[in-house]
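ZP: hey, is the thiamine diphosphate complex queued? I don't see it on the tracker
AM: it wasn't, my bad. submitting now with these inputs:
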Amino acid sequence: MSDKITKQDLISFEKEIAEIFGAGKIKAPVHLRAGREDALIKIFEEKKIGDNDYVFGYWDSHELALLKGVPRQDLKQAICDGKSISLCFPKQKVLCSGIVGSLMGTAVGAAWALKNKKEKGHVYIFCGDMSAETGIFHESVKYATNFELPVTFIVCDNGVSVMTDTRETWGSQEPWFKDTKFEKKIIYFKYENEYPHSGLGRLIKF
Ligand SMILES: Cc1ncc(C[n+]2csc(CCOP(=O)(O)OP(=O)(O)O)c2C)c(N)n1
């Protein structure tokens, strides 16, 4: 992790991308996030996420890439090239996908490899609250727990899946893993996204 990245850096980066996207210069989806900067910075600091560690994310991973040390300019270029929802920076060990539920098995597999090769490093996979309801999330957390793999699942709960109320779908105010043995593999926090799920909530003309 680059220790130079501040909350303000994360906020200003998303604002810059919002402006470029709003001007119709990015001809691909972008998912902007605001409101979870403190939580993400705290996790990167407390876990000392560094060069040996892997960060897996999904369509909303701009902040993760910055915190993992991807240079701002490289990240901006990738987003402008249309790769916002599937950012991949192998050098910084940042791997993302726009497909709900994908990568869970990949992250667990990477952790399995680290453990079995006795290599340094830990895998962190960041996902949303509805992603944490998928079958593959359950399977991956169970496998990682039972085989004591070096992987941590971070669930960033913004209360919705696109525009669907996650709690209504859960039928519960609490996530399924609360008070289970699987909790030790999971970091969970709530936040309110100050941007729409995707884009800027208005039609962008190219
Ligand atoms: C397989 C698949 N189905 C549907 C989508 C469309 N989709 C993108 S994000 C998303 C919502 C996911 O909700 P959550 O995991 O809570 O993420 P967040 O709200 O944090 O973006 C959906 C349904 C997709 N990307 N992949």
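AM: back. The longest strand covers residues 151-157.
ZP: great, adding it to the tracker
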